[in-house]
Structure formats: structure tokens, C-alpha cells
Design goal:
Distance between the termini: 98 Å
Domain Ig-like: 19-101
CATH architecture of the largest domain: Sandwich
Radius of gyration: 27 Å
Helix content: under 10%
Shape: rod-shaped
Pfam families: Ig_3
Structural class: mainly beta
Strand content: over 45%
Bound molecules: 2-acetamido-2-deoxy-beta-D-glucopyranose
CATH superfamily of the largest domain: Immunoglobulins
GO biological process, one term: synapse organization
Order of helices and strands: HEEEEEEEEEEEE
Number of helices: 1
Protein name: Ig-like domain-containing protein
GO molecular function, one term: axon guidance receptor activity
Length: 162
């Protein structure tokens, strides 16, 4: 009886502390600006781990703890990687990251016109996510490259020469 008791005590002590481990985290998500998004991060361990969140790009911003993080009316600046961290003091925290993409419609930020003796150069800068596609028009007529017109697009900028 006595020896069995001695064997059981270390066993129960070993089982009473289990390192925090994230068992599942939501997939990367895309949301329209102004929309709501819920992120999930489930953790196991003994004692019960605390799940906390941080935006990797904005480490100073505070988010409430919990397995579900609700972000309402998301702004484009809140796009990026989010990290959930589960800790219960038994070992180093367990962490996982996911990416939140915030889409918003394109807007033209700047339109520039430069004329020299021989050419006219137009430059258009636009913001949008995903990166906008550009189409050039003169009046209602779509401009295409060729016949003295050149068009070049690089990321959020597009140029046309005539
Ligand atoms: C976001 O959540 C708020 C509050 O729950 C709700 O009033 C609003 O309609 C939601 N917005 C969208 C785009 O679902």
C-alpha cells in the first residue's frame, strides 16, 4: 500500500503541468475595409493557457485576450500579420501567426501632366488593395500602346507618353 502511494505521487505531479500548445489557429483571411473579422486561436495545456494577440506591424496596439479576437470596422492600417500567443507559465509561450488582408477600392492619389516640345507625359498614382489595374482614356476612347503612345505600369503608378 505504502509503496504504491509513493509511486503515484510523482506521476500525478508530472501530469498536473502541461506546456501551453496552440492546437488550431484560423487561416489567413481577406476582408473589405470597414468589415468585421473574427480570428480564432485554440490552445491546450495545464493550467489552462491564456491566449493573447498582437498585430506584428503595430506591437503597441492592445487587443483583448481570449481564443476569439473580434475586430470591428477594420481599417486598412490594420492589415498584416497577427500573432496569437498561448502561455500558462509551464514553458515558453506557443505562438502562431496568420495574415489579415484588408481590401479597399482604388482611388487616384495623384495625376501629373508634363509636356515637352516633343512629348506629353501623364503619370497617375493610385491606391487600392489588391493593387489596381490601370486603363488610360482620352475622352471616352481607351488608349492602347502603339501608334506613338507608350504605357507603362509599375505597382501603384502608371505612365503614358504621347
Ligand atoms: C459589424 O458588427 C457590428 C456590430 O456587431 C454590426 O452592427 C455591423 O453591421 C457589422 N458590419 C458588417 C459589415 O457586417
Amino acid at each position: 500500500m505504502f509503496s504504491a502511494w509513493c509511486l503515484l505521487v510523482p506521476l500525478s505531479c508530472a501530469l498536473s503541468a502541461v506546456p501551453a500548445m496552440i492546437s488550431s489557429v484560423s487561416s489567413d483571411v481577406s476582408v473589405m475595409e470597414g468589415g468585421n473579422v473574427s480570428l480564432f486561436c485554440t490552445a491546450r495545456g495545464k493550467p489552462e493557457p491564456t491566449v493573447s494577440w498582437r498585430a506584428v506591424n503595430h506591437p503597441a496596439k492592445k487587443y483583448p485576450s481570449g481564443e476569439q479576437l473580434d475586430i470591428r470596422g477594420i481599417a486598412r492600417e490594420q492589415a498584416g500579420e497577427y500573432e496569437c500567443s498561448a502561455q500558462n507559465g509551464v514553458s515558453a509561450p506557443s505562438t502562431k501567426t496568420l495574415r489579415v488582408t484588408v481590401n479597399y477600392p482604388p482611388t487616384i492619389r495623384e495625376m501629373k501632366f508634363t509636356r515637352s516640345a516633343l512629348t506629353a507625359l501623364l503619370r497617375c498614382d493610385a491606391l487600392g488593395a489588391p493593387t489596381p489595374a490601370f486603363e488610360w482614356y482620352r475622352g471616352s476612347k481607351r488608349l492602347t500602346a502603339g501608334h506613338g503612345t507608350r504605357i507603362q505600369t509599375l505597382g501603384s503608378h502608371s505612365w503614358s507618353w504621347h
